[in-house]
Write a structure and sequence with these properties.
By secondary structure, this protein is α+β, with helices and mostly antiparallel strands. It is 12% helix and 20% strand. It folds into 2 domains: 197 residues, Mannose-Binding Protein A, subunit A (Mannose-Binding Protein A, Chain A, Roll), CATH 3.10.100; 163 residues, Mannose-Binding Protein A, Chain A (Roll), CATH 3.10.100. It has 6 helices and 22 strands. It is globular, with a radius of gyration of 21 Å. The two termini are 23 Å apart.
Length: 384
């Protein structure tokens, strides 16, 4: 990730944003009691008045010994990190939905100070909309994206049939991934229960407080994903019109163009590099600078539409090149977006990613492309 990100507003309205100056801490135990090491700039700030949520630093199999044993693991990890309150494991079983287990709580902030979600409904379909993807452990240290987490839970928060026999025996588990947008923190994979490489999501249920990102600086620039898919064939101007239309409908300030490479020109060459940070319309910081944008060092995925509420999770996005700084070729950009032929292809990114895969999705060392007549790929739109 980059070096700064928006904080959260607790029930009392006080922003937890970190201070100025050099880093004071590496993780939360470096800070005085009642403080956390904020991801914004690694300074110690008061712990927000909200529920904490974290991914365990330790890894487990799906054979946890049952739900009560999993809750005990979360309680122990919270105690080890000096986190106050009551914590439970986010797990479903054949007898109870994980969503029901947290239904009486509201407002979760990660242990590094970044807001996760305000309400239970925001965690699941049909309203899935998390702020910063879940990837901090109990000590506030970052967990790499793409790590499996156990959940046994469907995208709507209900129980799956894949729960490692209620977390007691081998079989299959349903789970999410760290760094996942939308509902992907809880649902992204079905896999074997036995490998010792899964983590738990531990959620506090004893706190209270409304959670939201703090207001961005006036110098910020906005980026969003189109609310509908974009059909290739109209050239760059049609893509820019699509972005401008979405922005106008949402009442966003400024002018917007599509983040697309064309033959002879990179996607980011269409924009003023500048040093201003990039934000989503929901006030979540995407990247500290255009340089970080180019390098795939994102705080959060570009998965929210211009209205700031709707999340487009895990969708293909037209890009046209391996990086935002690389010019396209005719063969990687649907002939600069003028072709809609099924026989031609273009490079795509994935809207759920916070690394280079947001722009150039690579799976098993294979660069992902879509045919130019593909009707489900969206656009990234950036403010000029």
């Amino acid at each position: 990730m980059g070096g700064a990100a928006g904080g959260a507003t607790g029930a009392g309205g006080a922003p937890a944003t970190g201070g100025a100056g050099p880093p004071q801490c590496a993780h939360n135990l470096d800070c005085p009691a009642g403080n956390i090491c904020h991801a914004y700039d690694r300074t110690c700030v008061p712990r927000p008045n909200a529920n904490s949520v974290f991914v365990t630093s330790a890894q487990y199999t799906g054979l946890l010994g049952g739900l009560a044993a999993a809750d005990a693991i979360c309680a122990a990890r919270a105690t080890a990190a000096a986190l106050p309150g009551t914590f439970i494991a986010f797990l479903s079983t054949s007898q109870v939905n994980a969503k029901t287990r947290i239904s009486s709580a509201r407002g979760w902030i990660q242990t590094d100070g970044l807001p996760f979600a305000d309400t239970v409904d925001a965690l699941f379909l049909p309203n899935a909309h998390v702020f910063y993807p879940l990837q901090a452990n109990e000590f506030g240290d970052p967990v790499p994206p793409g790590q499996y987490v156990l959940s046994g839970t469907n995208p709507d928060g209900t129980t799956s049939t894949n729960t490692c026999v209620d977390w007691t025996a081998d079989g299959l588990f349903r789970g999410g991934v760290t760094g996942g947008s939308g509902y992907m923190w809880a649902y992204n994979v079905d896999a074997s229960c036995f490998p010792l490489n899964m983590r738990l999501v531990c959620m506090q249920t004893s706190g209270a407080g409304q959670v939201a990102p703090v207001s961005p600086p006036a110098t910020r620039r906005l980026a969003f994903i189109t609310s509908t898919a974009h059909l290739s064939g109209g050239g760059l101007s049609a893509a820019d019109t699509h972005c401008a239309s979405d922005a106008a409908t949402a009442g966003l300030p400024g002018t917007y163009k599509a983040l697309l490479a064309v033959t002879g020109a990179s996607a980011l060459s269409r924009f003023n590099a500048g040093t201003a940070p990039w934000y989503r319309p929901d006030n979540v910081r995407i990247a500290d600078s255009t340089a970080d944008f180019a390098a795939g060092k994102l705080w959060a995925p570009i998965s929210v539409t211009a209205n700031g509420r709707t999340e487009i999770t895990n969708n293909a996005v037209w890009t046209g090149a391996p990086t935002p700084l690389t010019a396209a070729t005719a063969d990687s950009s649907c002939t600069s977006w003028t072709s809609a032929a099924a026989s031609s292809v273009a490079a795509v990114g994935l809207s759920s990613k916070i690394d280079k895969n947001y722009f150039d999705y690579t799976l098993a060392d294979k660069r992902w492309t879509e045919a130019c007549n593909f009707d489900s790929s969206h656009l990234y739109c950036l403010q000029e």
